[in-house]
Structure to design on (420 residues):
């Protein structure tokens, strides 16, 4: 009996070579699964998991960016003037800094700079307007002769229209205008509203420009002070680098507009088109308005050539305008602008195209500077460049050095010397 008891309690070890691996026992109901078999993450390929992790993060960034763009579009009357004021302050800030170096008070330097800028723009527009008005007055007889030539071509050309048929077409066109008088009136009213918004935007732009030039350091210091203490150095350095990119963009845009004006003006002068000099000034000013500026100034150049020298000269002038504008938008601007703002020429072209698709003319105007600032800020933060910069040394009081005031929590923020 004891032998059988001893034999019954002996454990027999299975031979793994004979029986093979023992299958894992499934977990009991109600108990959490554990072990490598229950870890379903190992069943998903590593590439799929990485793609999924990137997908929801990128999707969240796109969604938030779209919401921000939509919110900004609802207050475009406020956002666009402020952004234009930032561009103008990037253009005029070196002048203000130079006047301060000559010991001119801050307020007087800002006032002189803005008055000189407005006087320059107003004088240029006045000269262009007066010259064009006097030129069109002298060309009026040629315009009437051109109208007579058009009527002669309609009656004696391939169309062979009689005077009665021409009058009938004119009467039908007049009836169409009278029938659509309500839509024309509504369009005029909407245009009046647009003009009112434009006037309000100009006043807001001037107001913001004054304070950007007068107290840009204090405004930037306040914005930096809103950030957490650990992020203030990075925010201040990234903002200063982004501001430098904006200044470079404005300077290069001036150069590109100058080349555009010289190209079209020289073409008009060689072809004998009247008013070539005011036309060049008009092209220079219109180059800062994407799409509409080039279209409007090019149409004026072709119209002058048509009225003064005939349709052959007008076609040649049209070809010159198209060549200059296409070279400026596809060669000069991508290459020169891309090098100045550290962007690839393809990125500049895509930024302008995408900005115009998303926000029209304002999008085309602000796409390149926004892309340049974003590129500079991202590179600065990714390289953690602020850690290698020396800490600011203590200087005179804020009233003398222009240093930003204390933050909301009482800690003095880092000065931003070049921020708007």
């Amino acid at each position: 009996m004891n032998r059988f008891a001893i034999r019954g309690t002996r454990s027999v070890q299975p031979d793994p070579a004979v029986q093979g691996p023992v299958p894992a026992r499934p977990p009991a109901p109600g108990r959490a699964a554990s072990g490598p078999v229950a870890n379903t993450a190992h069943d998903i390929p590593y590439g799929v998991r990485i793609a999924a992790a990137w997908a929801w993060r990128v999707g969240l960034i796109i969604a938030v960016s779209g919401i921000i763009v939509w919110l900004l579009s609802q207050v475009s009357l406020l956002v666009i003037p402020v952004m234009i004021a930032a561009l103008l302050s990037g253009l005029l800030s070196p002048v203000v800094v130079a006047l301060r170096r000559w010991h001119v008070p801050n307020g007087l330097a800002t006032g002189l700079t803005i008055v000189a800028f407005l006087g320059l723009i107003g004088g240029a527009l006045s000269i262009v307007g007066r010259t064009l008005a006097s030129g069109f007055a002298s060309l009026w007889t040629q315009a009437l002769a051109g109208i007579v030539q058009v009527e002669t071509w309609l009656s004696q050309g391939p169309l062979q229209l009689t005077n009665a048929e021409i009058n009938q077409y004119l009467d039908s066109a007049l009836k169409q205008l009278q029938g659509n008088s309500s839509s024309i009136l509504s369009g005029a009213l909407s245009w009046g509203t647009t003009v009112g918004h434009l006037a309000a935007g100009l006043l807001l732009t001037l107001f913001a420009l004054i304070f950007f030039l007068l107290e840009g350091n204090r405004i930037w210091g306040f914005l930096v002070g809103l950030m957490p203490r650990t992020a203030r150095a990075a925010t201040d350095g990234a903002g200063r680098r982004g501001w430098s990119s904006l200044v470079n963009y404005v300077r290069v845009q001036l150069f590109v507009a100058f080349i555009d004006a010289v190209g079209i003006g020289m073409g008009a002068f060689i072809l004998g088109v009247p008013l070539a000099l005011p036309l060049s000034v008009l092209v220079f000013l219109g180059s800062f308005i994407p799409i509409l500026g080039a279209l409007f100034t090019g149409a004026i150049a072709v119209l002058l050539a048509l009225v003064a020298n005939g349709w052959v000269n007008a076609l040649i002038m049209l070809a010159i305008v198209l060549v200059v504008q296409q070279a400026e938008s596809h060669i000069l601007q991508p290459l020169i602008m891309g090098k100045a703002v550290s962007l690839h020429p393809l990125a500049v072209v895509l930024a302008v195209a995408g900005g115009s698709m998303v926000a029209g003319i304002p999008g085309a105007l602000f796409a390149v500077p926004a892309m340049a600032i974003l590129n500079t800020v991202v590179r600065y933060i990714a390289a953690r460049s602020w850690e290698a910069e020396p800490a600011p040394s203590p200087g005179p009081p804020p009233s003398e050095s222009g240093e930003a005031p204390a933050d909301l929590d009482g800690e003095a923020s880092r000065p931003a010397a070049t921020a708007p």
